[in-house]
Design goal:
disordered C terminus, flat, mainly beta, single chain
Length: about 325
């Protein structure tokens, strides 16, 4: 998306905001009223100065039925630099740079990686030629700083969208950094990696190739969906076989309201955060609280899926 105006960004653009621990314990252990349920939202402000380009807001109270209470309001909690905006898998602002780089190197790239490179240029993304296509993954680079945001671009190949997950096993030996300085049309590519060789710029790679000092490689992607696809080899009879179901196990747990779980002598609240996974709260054994919170603070991962926009969890 264009980086103008204001918009939500990131896998946790809208999340339930935890109440402070003192208020939560006062309600859980005493007669205090339940603290209001609030939401936190992350908004990117392309229309504001870069120093205030990301806003962290609190919204609420929530009404408990998927909406806002009549007294709800929006409050700005903190402003962050524009370069602190969360990674969003729907952000297409780097497309201009990617297409410019691939266009400048298309002769070399086609000779090395086949005709599927053309899908990165003018062919519609819905067209899947027999040679396959690429999932372009853009993520924060190691050298990125607050003053100089840098992304690393890699190219993962797949042929059949229904077998999208194999792309994680077919990364091209070609990648580069994008430096986010100025408007997207002014962003630059640097630190080009081609077949194990490093070049500072695209022009440097082109010049070296003309001089004959680049060692060209050939790595045309292909797949029979054997070693790179989860499950039985599709070429064997096991692919159509269904394993016998095991014995039915009686359910020994009970689901309570709002994510509560009771299992034997244990009770807890459970939720799944979009970017960090499972979190458990108010974990009790025989009525006694053992843990107030058990969770990962920061652990997101890229997972495969049949659809490119569904693989980020």
């Amino acid at each position: 998306a264009a980086l103008h105006g204001c918009f939500l960004s990131g896998s946790e653009a809208v999340t339930l905001k935890l109440p402070d621990k003192t208020s939560a314990l006062a309600h859980l252990d005493g007669d205090a009223v339940a603290p209001p349920r609030m939401a936190q939202i992350i908004v990117v402000h392309g229309e504001k100065p870069v120093a205030d380009g990301v806003g962290i807001y609190t919204v609420g109270p929530l009404d408990g039925h998927g909406g806002l209470a009549k007294t709800a309001s929006v409050s700005l909690v903190e402003s962050l630099h524009f370069n602190r905006r969360p990674v969003d898998m729907g952000d297409s602002s780097t497309d201009v740079v990617v297409k410019n780089v691939v266009s400048s190197l298309q002769g070399l790239l086609r000779a090395s990686f086949g005709s599927s490179i053309s899908t990165l240029l003018d062919q519609p993304s819905s067209v899947t030629p027999a040679s396959g296509q690429f999932f372009v993954l853009t993520s924060p680079a190691v050298g990125s700083t607050l003053e100089r945001r840098v992304s690393r671009v890699v190219f993962n190949w797949f042929r059949d969208p229904e077998q999208f997950q194999i792309c994680w096993m077919h990364t091209l030996p070609f990648s580069f950094d994008i430096v986010h300085v100025g408007a997207p049309e002014e962003w630059l590519a640097e630190n080009i990696t081609y077949c194990g060789q490093m070049f500072s710029t695209v022009q440097g790679l082109i010049a070296a190739d003309k001089q004959g000092s680049v060692v060209r490689c050939t790595s045309i992607p292909d797949s029979a969906y054997t070693w790179d696809s989860a499950g039985p080899d599709p070429g064997t009879s096991a692919a159509s076989q269904t394993p016998e179901l095991g014995p039915t196990v009686a359910q020994t747990w009970h689901v309570l309201r709002r994510g509560g779980i009771r299992w034997r002598d244990w009770e807890m609240q459970a939720t799944v955060r979009p970017a960090s996974g499972l979190a458990l709260y108010d974990v009790r054994w025989r009525g006694e609280r053992i843990l107030y919170e058990l969770a990962l603070n920061d652990a997101h991962a890229y997972y495969s899926s049949a659809l490119g926009e569904k693989q980020f969890h």
